[in-house]
Amino acid sequence: MSVRTLPLVFINLGGEMLYILDQRLQAQNTSEDNSEKGVWSENDRRRVMNDIVGTMFNKAFMDELLKPQQLYSHRTLKTVLTRIAHASIMRLNPASMDRLYELMVMAFKYQVFLCPRPKDLLLISYNHIDTIREFVKDTPVVVNQVDETHRKIIEVYSSLSEGEFQLLRQTLLIFFQDMHVRVSLFLKIQVQNPNGRFALSTSGPVPHGTEVPGLIRTFDSKGREVRRSEFPTGGSYSSPIREGCFELHGDRIIRLGLNMYVLTSVCSRLTFLSTSVTLQTDDTPNLLAKEELNLLARLMGSMKAENKPKAETGFRINLFTTDEEEEEAGASCGAEESLFGVINIQAMQDEQAATELARIAGQFAEQQEQPENPSGNKGDDLLAMMDDL
């Protein structure tokens, strides 16, 4: 397992979170009912984005994150990202954060699947960083934080070998392998099956530095080519696109990692997700993609200030039709979980290993009973550091 995976996971998942939150905040800001008490302004939206990005790219926090370490669990990552999302005056209820995390994970998982070569994971991360920088372009202090983190990412990852990047990609695939959440946008463009698994295309440009498949060349003992033969590839491949820029600024070439929620048509969204699938141009809005975000909106409850000075007023984003729907959403999550039983399987016969596993399980139980004061678990340093920000 690669010890350099955590920073890329955090930056890419954080970028996807910012994409969704920005889309929902803008949608609320442009709603027709602006006379309702508590509707916030465009300045509030910018403040939320600046606060979240400023916390996410805090120097001390990123220095700790960039240290070589094992990848955190989904539970710990979601806890960190929840605190990042709550760094401003906005609040998400648990049901909202659960759904938000699922959308973030599935988007990044698909990008990892489509990544032409392991090293291009950096280009996906840089696309996220470039878009985040654009969110806070009017706040020089926050922009400097983003630039400083970007320089550190370049410094840390530019020296990795191809084999280390391959190990990094394998670590990501292992991390995502049990996540099969259905996303309406992916279902609409038929890149995801009803069971939540992705259906990858066998067409499109090949990775940079490789040749289009379909030709077999045979060489003799002296290295001279003696025969050529062709074989059917089962797909429609094209020559590789030029290599993207791995510097602080430049053309990344690949579009994976860009904000797909700013687009309106199915074809345009698909271009962001994959260059290997072609559809007929369709200028009609993607209703299912919008419904995916509307579902998140229905799950989002009251977003208000907590533990703030009385002189500072928070705001409420009216994403539910009624307050009762929020309670129903939480109740439905509990009802859904009750449908699944738990099967205990003893897969380890070694007594020492079983004792160690029981000890770790006990730590998780203690963490669940006391979520505000965890101890002895991976990620504590980051969470404690965030409390001080």
UniProtKB/TrEMBL annotation:
Residues 364-389 are annotated as: Disordered. GO terms for cellular component: cytoplasm; plasma membrane. It holds the Pfam family Oscp1. Transmembrane segments: none annotated. Residues 365-376 have a biased composition (Polar residues). InterPro entries: OSCP1 (IPR019332). This is Protein OSCP1 isoform X3. It comes from Lates calcarifer (Barramundi). The gene is oscp1a.
